[in-house]
Amino acid sequence: MRIIKLNAIDSTNSYLKQLSVEESLVDNTIVVTNYQTKGRGQMGTTWVSEDSKNLMFSVLKDVSWLHADKSFYISMVTSLAIIKSLEYFSIPKLRIKWPNDILSEDMKVCGVLIENVIKHTHLKDSIIGIGLNINQTDFSNLPKATSLRLISGQVFNLDEVMIMIIKEITYYFKLLKAGRFQEIKNLYETLLFRKDKPSTFKDAEGSMFSGFIKSVSNSGNLQVLLEDDIIKEFDLKEISLLY
Ligand code: BTN
């Protein structure tokens, strides 16, 4: 393991990705920063965080042993590792909002941005970026966001939380490497936000529709039971879950 600590950077994911192109990095190289000037979220969104209040880090994992059609399992094990770590800090009512937002009491506390490096159609590295709201208390522009401090009233040591997450990532990646796919998927689905509950979605054109979340496919598509008893699969570009 190698930890690179920075005071400020555009994005820990971008930095680690660039570094992995320039030099060959050891598995578990971690980049952590106090502040990001161009923090990136899923689907081209931005990730904004106050200076030194929250965790922003990226982990490089060698995933050359994983078949590319199983790449969503990286997302699943990462979500499980974060949930396990937050359970350790007694954070209540944890759920995974598909594909990998981490919620506590239905509010988003953590976001994950996974970027895979593919070489000759095979997976090579995965850059797992984690933004976990920890000690920030003002989310006035983000009504659905919260932090560990707002939830628990406690102030946390950022390094301590990061080390716990890295430990759990190591554990869950071992399960993945051992091929325990069904077990991982079961754990993930058990924690899925609004599973088997009536949910409202927005499609790419902006229209709303409702259905019941049933499960996820191996490629990470959400399987939704629609009216007329039809189960349809959607990928992240096609829909977003509203509530
Ligand atoms: C999301 O919820 O859309 C994902 C947010 C991911 C944010 C983290 S912060 C550390 C890493 N560097 C980035 O630029 N993004 C991820």
For the record, the CATH class of the largest domain is: Alpha Beta
Task: Outline the low-pLDDT stretches.
Answer: none
Beta-strand residue fraction: 25-35%
Mean of all residue-level pLDDT scores: 96
Helix content estimate: 25-40%
The rough form would be described as globular
Question: From the 3D coordinates, which CATH architecture of the largest domain would you assign?
Answer: 2-Layer Sandwich
Written account of the structure:
Keywords: Ligase. Residues 1-177 form the BPL/LPL catalytic domain. InterPro entries: aa-tRNA-synth_II/BPL/LPL, Biotin_CoA_COase_ligase, BPL_LPL_catalytic. With 243 residues, this protein is of the alpha+beta class. The protein contains five helices and twelve strands. The protein has a seven-stranded mixed sheet, with helices on both faces. Strands 11-10-9-8-12 form a five-stranded antiparallel sheet, with no helix packed on it. Strand 5 (101-104) and strand 6 (107-119) form a beta hairpin. The model has no long low-confidence stretch (mean pLDDT 96).
